[in-house]
Amino acid sequence: MTKKIFLFASIVFSMLCVSCELKDFDFQDDPSKLTPEDVSPDYLLNEIQYQFQLMMREHVRNTDDIMRYEAMTDTYAALVSDGILTLEWSTLYSMRINDKILQDLAADNPDLKFHSAMSKLLTGYATVTMVDYVGDIPFSEALQGLDIPNPKTDDSVLIYDSVLSDIDDAITDFSAATVKPFTDLYYNGDNQKWIAFARSLKLKLLLQTRLVNANFSSVPNIVTEINNLIASGVTTTGAGDFQFKNSTEISPDGRHFYFERGYSSNGMFEYIGNYFMYMLKDSKSVRDPRLRYYVYRQSGTDPVATGFIICSGNPDYDYCYVGDMYSGIDHGDERTGRADRFLRTIYGLYPGGGAFDADNFVTAVQSSNLGGAGILPLLSASYVKFLMAESALTLGTTGDPAVLLEQGIRLSMDKVLNFATVDPAYAATSTDVNNYVAEVMANYANAATDAEKLDIIITESYLAGFGNSIAAYNAYRRTGYPSNIQEPVDNESVPFPRSFQYPSNALNSNTSLTQRAITEQIFWDNNPAGFIK
Amino acid sequence: MNRKLLYSVLVLMVSSVFMYAQKTVTGTITDNSGMPLPGVNLVIKGTTIGASTNFDGQYSINTQTASDVLVFSFIGFKNQEIAVGNQSVINVTLQEDTEALSEVVITAQGIKKSKKALGYAITTLESEEVAQRPEADLARTLQGKIAGVNIAAVNGETGAGTSIRIRSSLSITQSNAPLIVINNVPFGGNITDIDANDIKSMSVLKGLNASVLYGSEGRNGVILIETKSGSAVTGEKSFRASVSTTTYVNQVANLPEYQNKYGSGSEFGYVGGNLGIWGPAFTDLAEIPHPYSIYGDIFPEYKDLMVPYEASPNNVKDLFKTGRGTITSLNIASTQEKTAFNLSAGYTDEQGIIGNNDLKRFNLGIGGQIQLSDKFKVSVPLNYSTRKVNRLQATEIFNLLLFIPRELDLLSLPYQHPQTGASIYYRSSENPLWVINNTGMFDDIVRLFGTVNAKYDFTNKLSLTYRAGIDNDSQDEFDYSNKGGFSDNEFGFLDLDYDKAVTIDQSVILSLNGLELGNHIGLDTQVGINSKFLKGKSHSSNSSDQIVFGFQNPRNYRTTSAAYSNYDENIAGAFGQFEFNYDNFLYITLSGRNDWGSTVEQENRSLFYPGASFSFIPTSAFNSKSKALSYLKLRGAYGTSSGFPTRYRTRSTLDTNPRRFVDVNGQVLVTNSSNDEYANPNLAPELHREFELGIEARLFNNRVNLEASAFKRISEDQILGASLAPETGYTSTTINAGRIDTKGMEIDLGIDLIKTENFKWNFRNLFTAYESLVVDLPQSELELQINGSASGRFAIEGQPLGIMKGSYALRDDEGNLLINPTIGEIYVSSEQGKDDIIIGDPTPDWNLTTINSFSYKNFNLSAQFEYTHGGDILGLGVQDLLERGVTKDTENREGSFIVPGVYGDPVTEQALLDSNGNKIPNTIQQNAQRTVFSNYYNAEELSVFDGSVFRLREIALGYTFNKAKNSRIPFETMTFTLSGRNLWFNAPDFPKYSNYDPENDNGLGDQNVPTTKRFALGVAVTF
């Protein structure tokens, strides 16, 4: 009996031991994941294209309120603190390592020239944008994993320089490319548009550094180089606008973030800035034709009557309420906890893909709108014209600043006014546009000084640049314009942020980084401390 | 056969039969204080005829001959032999065994050992200490009951998790949960799956030496549980059955005390929808617009409606319900000479204090033991459990819920849109009632845990044990939100998740016990091998964009993506333990184990780690007869353990996303990208070492019982889930680095203050203290992740583990707050661009539990008090209550206030001086709102509270009704228990009316589901 049992037990035991691979310890490959060898250059480029707009969008979100498009409801210090750029920072470096893998693949595959060039431009644009926000960043020592866990920063000028020469390489590659990438979200595989964009980007970077005599190895003279770029052909028509198109898709969310902010059933949490609405509505003798396209009024009830406007009569407030049911708040007003989310003025048709304001006065959810299929304007022809106007005025480069200014405004009007079909009863007419242009051009002609002229150029660029506050933030630090921009109402003498702080995810893990003050200036900003508020 | 012998036997038999008529002997057995002892075993020496005493200590046995000798034995007492002779009543007073030679405890791998031989700390708990408590979760019942063990509940939600830490946390980023072993086989599940009423006994192994035989799995301590169903033992024929039921109510325990003088608004002006409750006094304003008047298009009845402006004093309290719970358990044990069978079944049904929050659990345990031959025994306990938990999707709602406007009668208002079902609330956030009714997390966990224990005795010294356990666990999760909420819930989602995990754990152990090496030296030895193989897979789907409101099925959502993953993991070990004893007063044990693990690359797979311990009993060595010191044991241990990293950390993978973006034309963007995690091929297991010294003593005629241990632990080459700076191209990795040293002590002191026949008073104290120090890190500091997100808790070299960092208020060199002279407010470091500093250590300095147990005749009463000393909490939840002005703390608000401090310069961090060189005190007056809101508490440092707390954890009153002799009542005993848990607490450093329970939110300081207090009535009957 015992022997039988014992024999039986031994058999069971040995079956258990052998059958379940007890001696096998080779379980290091995760069976549920692809390996790096499976990478596809097209899918990799897709990620880079997606990450680029993600990072730029977040930067726009960060400066919309600092630049008064959206009302600022917090302090400057809080809005540029170390918690702000964490996503942008990690997205940038993730883009850069994806770019590195793609460039390695392209190095010995001539069919990937287009891929390589697109990736260089997008990664380069993202990189200099981060430099414009925080100054020196890790660059040459970056992307080494545990081999260099604490990469040091490089001088901003060197990073600019490197991106400038990448732009040159990209232009060469675009010209030589024979195979288009599978997906091109920006120009649908049109290399000529890419080349024009590349030159425009280079122009933008050079103009950005016009105040300082930066020592770029590839650009000995920026005036000559800007003239060369203009001569070779930059983006001059709306068809060449460099922009990202949103969709109406909810999952994954492809809608414009302005739409998400304003058009959920929950109402809008933010406010449109009173200064911006004042500029559109009342700063000139004619209303800005873009007003009904830019912002949308949900309510026809006078907000003062609702009791939610709590600043009435308070001398600290410059606008408080700009009238005509345009319900926003002043720059720096932190008192926001009011139940007026269905009464507030919200983002409109352009660029967020919301509703056109035809005096409908219904809440965002009930409005007829584009469902979030807006655009993220990144480098439009209109913007290029304003840059060229500034360049012509300040550096004497090719072109008449007045002509360029008018072209810039008209390109913007064309773009905004033709963004979607709207109620003709309320649509802006060409007369409206002409009247507007006439007033600006008259003001420009009457401006006594170049400084006043520049103020007009930058102010028009500011108004045209709704949806891309990165440009406005850079221009404000470079020029100090628009000169009539509103100062914070709760002035607690916190200075205007001349740069953002390093994000905590960079600082906490990289011992070679030390935090910077928000008053530190980017290399191209040699304006005096405190010259803007 | 020898004739003489045959003759003698015959004579004996004849004389037995004819000369000695069978006779019944009865008697009462008491201890030396006269207390009757129930459950004392007695056998007729040399036979298997036996009996045991009832609850009154009485027995009755049929003896065969006058020369029969009765042997009385009882744990903790010396055996006593009495010849029957012609007595028919034999009353016995048993003498306590001062050395407790018979105290045998179950140690690692199911090895039974005499407790005095152990060189390490072990705590055992009996059934009575955990059974019939009003908690569905066994872990919560154990709170405070074991020295050296900390148990924290995440929040007061029914079914919410608990964390158990034995001797604090060992690792910075790896799991710190102890190993749970059921019926000697490691259990992969949650302690919540265990029915507390099925527990026969529990042992807690605290140190590394104690758990070395479990290898890396045992490094965080081990909880050994023996279930009733797993403990069927062959032997005397018997049948027992018991049934118990506990019914309890569950109530919110820590709501703030609200002010009811002022309503919402700002600076004494009414602002509807404002979060701040700084509006006018209720006496100063007659009417306000209805809170839903802005919803005129949805609810025309509220449009332009004015309602009286008045407080709704119970508007928060009324949102909580009284939850009810019942726990029913059934236990049947049937024993035969060669077979034994046990069955236990339990059903638990608990409702939480918030809507749609409940737990249902069913447990079934079946166990049997068969004696196949004299030498071969097999037992097969099988446990089946199902647990269904229904919880809230977002407990963040409690943040806002606790400071709703004093005038808002939330329960009387609709919470959703009558047509669309969307959330409707007085302000721009989700209505908490909408969240409760439209979101949920259902978990359905089914676990089948079967084990086989086979033991073959070659001789009475040499035996072979084979043990296998198969733990099959499937977990179904159903997380959803209807559309119409905020942010993630705006369009609704449904996440379905099905996980299946199988663990096969097998051990073979060869034991050689009682070997004599010369006259005085004995050796017990066990060697064995162990294999643990884990396999699992998971299917999941994520759906979003709900189509028809209120229906949850992937087909009712516009987009669904699916995922699948699977894994294999293998850990094997070979171990040995050699225990030498010298005359049973000096024990030296050497042990060692080698582990092989599959989660690292080949060159790092094998790791050996040894252990050694001693136990010395001077009272035995010097044969002490002292009553003052009846038993003394000194012990010491050195233990080591390994820890293997989690799976798949050594090889790079590629991220893919099949649906990163869908463009305007509906084209779907597929992407590849570099994985954010940097794979580290050099990753190796970590090594922990621990020294432990202890003392165990019984004093004053065993009235005082002391066990104390002190330990120091060094954890080196820690496996860290480290954050990488994104500029490295990656955001995380797993590395070997870091060292944490932990020192601690545990004291368990029990005193029988009174011990008479009818009345006993036991006074027991459990003291736990430890501190940990981060000695080495790959970088100077590392932010810890809690539930996958940054926690504000850090590992910083030279600091205790888990220290908190935050912003601070600038001060001068004398510690005065520096005040901004233009606005009269403090300067906050972060706003001045200054780095955060350490603002607190969340780890308590020490804990003390005092349990007083009284018994009087059939009544018993026990009360458990606890005190936790220290442990800082960043009380953002309390800060909100203060800043929003809802509690009585801020009721006094008329007039003006001045933040105490001196005017200062934020750049130099110096006080400003007047013309005489004196500091200038702040004299800028502010109203109450401006003083408390967006001012004083902006510096996180000023929201740090000391988490010291007094708590009445448990009171239990029991009455046992025993069957009287010859009674016709069909049961043996019936026990009634009345108990209450978490009845009272006081955290003196927190603002008085915030009533904040430091246990809420697991010490993280936010508002979460409030903690609960419970009252229960239990009835248990044995047959």
Q: Can you give the helix content of chain A as a percent range?
A: 40-55%
Work out the radius of gyration of chain B: 33 Å
Order of helices and strands of chain A: HHHHHEEHHHEHHHEHEEHHHHHH
**Main sheet overview of chain B:** 23 strands, antiparallel
Low-confidence stretches of chain B: 8-20
Number of distinct beta strands of chain A: 6
Query: What value does the average pLDDT of chain B take?
Result: 87
Mean pLDDT of chain A: 92
Range of helix content of chain B: under 10%
Poorly predicted runs of 5 or more residues of chain A:
none
How many DSSP H or I helices of chain B?
Answer: 8
Structural class of chain B: mainly beta
Based on secondary structure, the structural category of chain A is mainly alpha
Q: Outline the biggest β-sheet of chain A.
A: 2 strands, antiparallel
Biggest chain pair contact, residues each?
Answer: A-B, 103 and 107 residues
Whole-Å distance between the termini of chain B? 48 Å
Overall form of chain B = globular
Q: What is Rg of chain A?
A: 27 Å
Strand content of chain A: under 5%
User: How many beta-strand elements of chain B?
Assistant: 57
Strand content of chain B: over 45%
